[in-house]
Amino acid sequence: MRISTVYKDQIDFFLKEDELERSSQYILSLPSDQVVCHLKLKDDLMLAGAPFFHAVFEHLAQKPLDMQTVLNCEGQSFKKSDQKIIEFKLPFNIALSGERIALNLLQRASAIASYTSEMVQAAGEVKILDTRKTTPGLRFLEKYAVKIGGGHNHRLSQTDIWMIKDNHKNFFGGVEKAIEYFQNLGGFYQPIVLEIHDVPEIKPALDLGIKHFLLDNFSEAQIHAAVAIKPKGVTYELSGGINLQNLKELSLSGIDCVSSGSLTYNAPHKDISLKINE
């Protein structure tokens, strides 16, 4: 499915936010001559978000646009020193009107993909997962960018996986009652992930049938102790303030995956500009 179809409502909103809908006369009054455009990559980066970049201009033009040269670069890594030129053609009025929104989306996705790629390399065989700590309205873009960077998506919504957290335990009166509540919801294929903060929580939860554990803010000693009693077929997810810097210091032996909100809320900005007939 085309991104322009999937993301149509969001693109409509972005254009309204930029008041382009109200400024339609301005767009129509600009020359519509075909111009040569090129992207200038001002940082080392993995390019991501090209389908969204393309969709903004196509949405404005209300017709198909050939931007295959940009789309072909999706997921590729570039050095600023490469001075890579990515050329494409657009009507001048469409290029000028959609430039800022399209670049904002491209830069955001490229930042997340680039940072995710670094995290993936640092983690080795351990899978890197995102979280629901995304920008409202941009979850689809940001989780897409994580996948381009080689990471994996955790949950798109709360109901993809039942996750039992401290607030659930506190409300229901303990981990046992919280687990029973979610087990009684009747989702035959619905997995349950239990967030724990110490090793003694593992054994009682195993006895209740829990197979997936989120080890939240575990110390190095706690990680080793948890791994030492890990049964076959059980999944350990490490989480809690993990970023590129402290990930490199963690022992990940016996850990299946690492989830990090840092992927989507702390990815360093990437600078890209669009030049016309330069």
What do these coordinates show?
- The strands form three sheets. A six-stranded parallel β-sheet has the order 5-10-9-8-7-6.
- The relative contact order is 0.15.
- It has 278 residues and is of the alpha/beta class.
- The model has no long low-confidence stretch (mean pLDDT 92).
- Helix 4 packs antiparallel against helix 6 (92-123), helix 6 (92-123) packs across helix 7 (139-148) and helix 8 (166-172) crosses helix 9 (175-183).
- The protein is built from 13 helices and eleven strands.
- Helix 11 links the parallel strand 8 and strand 9.
- The chain folds into two domains: 3-119 and 268-276, Quinolinate phosphoribosyl transferase, N-terminal domain (Aldehyde Oxidoreductase, domain 3), CATH 3.90.1170; 120-265, Alpha-Beta Barrel (TIM Barrel), CATH 3.20.20.70.
Q: What proportion of the residues is helical, as a percent range?
A: 40-55%
Could you describe the largest sheet, including whether it forms a barrel? 6 strands, parallel
What is the CA-CA span between the terminal residues?
Answer: 34 Å
> Could you state the CATH homologous superfamily of the largest domain?
Aldolase class I
Total helix count? 13
Radius of gyration: 23 Å
Number of strands: 11
Query: What is the N-to-C order of secondary-structure elements (H for helix, E for strand)?
Result: HHHEEHHEEHEHEHHEHEHEHEHE
* SS-based class: alpha/beta
The domain tally reads: 2
- Per CATH, the class of the largest domain reads Alpha Beta
The fold-level CATH name of the largest domain is TIM Barrel
- Strand content range: 15-25%
User: Which CATH architecture of the largest domain?
Assistant: Alpha-Beta Barrel
- General form: elongated
List unreliable stretches of 5+ residues: none
